[in-house]
Amino acid sequence: MVLVKLENITLDFPVPAWKSERRRSSSQEKPIGGQLSAGRSGHTVVRALDQLSLTLGPGDRLALLGHNGAGKTTLLRVMAKLYAPTHGRVTIQGRVAPLLNLAFGMDMDSTGYDNIFIRGLFLGMSKAELRKKADAIAEFSELGDFLDLPMRTYSSGMRARLAFAISTHVETDILLLDEVVATGDARFFRKANQKLESFAQESKLLVLASHSNEVLRDLCNKALLLEHGRVKAFGAIDEVIETYASSKIVNAKGG
């Protein structure tokens, strides 16, 4: 059974004392960031998620929509259990592969080949799985002899290639994706996108945050629209994309 169930999830991040009335009022006029409020201790907090409930099961492929700071990445990290909610309950059943940050689980002083095992273990793969897949991961990365060098000698594009290759060879039930990753030159980018689409289709449950409506329509069948950490719309992908487009027009006009 594959399940993602969130019950009344609220997540607060404490911030230093908020002294500027001008900054406070201006931050509430535009749809960016979470909500500023007082926490239990009386200190100012940013409420990144606000009483969010959601249940997903096998076959669900959910797109996350919303302005910058709406809570999309935060929600993915709660699903991955990287963030513990301030209130509410998270229930996850199934093996989760979070492609949220390509730097997670990588050691800059270790070789590329060693990092196949380091990041693979971080993503929940066993040593036996990694031994079987190491050659395929190395081949997909196209890094060749560079895999014998420390990762600190790599360019950012080379590091992204290796991390992407490792991540997309995980056998997973639940795939969490934050944007489609750019991984170097145009040819490899096309190859990576093809692999990503195949990887997403093989997962039993997908949650994807992206600013590309084309990507979301290709990979998803449902959508969740967030605004200031709250659910503004949930339903069929095309309907929610239209709702989001309409809300952006209204905000642009100041309505």
From TrEMBL:
Region of interest (Disordered), ranges: 20-39
Protein family according to the UniProt entry: Belongs to the ABC transporter superfamily.
Keywords: ATP-binding, Nucleotide-binding
Highest taxon listed in the record's lineage: Bacteria
Keyword Nucleotide-binding belongs to the record: yes
SMART domains xref list: AAA (SM00382)
SUPFAM superfamilies: P-loop containing nucleoside triphosphate hydrolases
Descriptive protein name: ABC-type polysaccharide/polyol phosphate transport system, ATPase component
Listed Pfam families: ABC_tran
GO CC term (a single one): membrane
GO molecular function: ABC-type transporter activity; ATP binding; ATP hydrolysis activity
Membrane-spanning parts: none
UniProt domain ABC transporter: residue ranges: 4-253
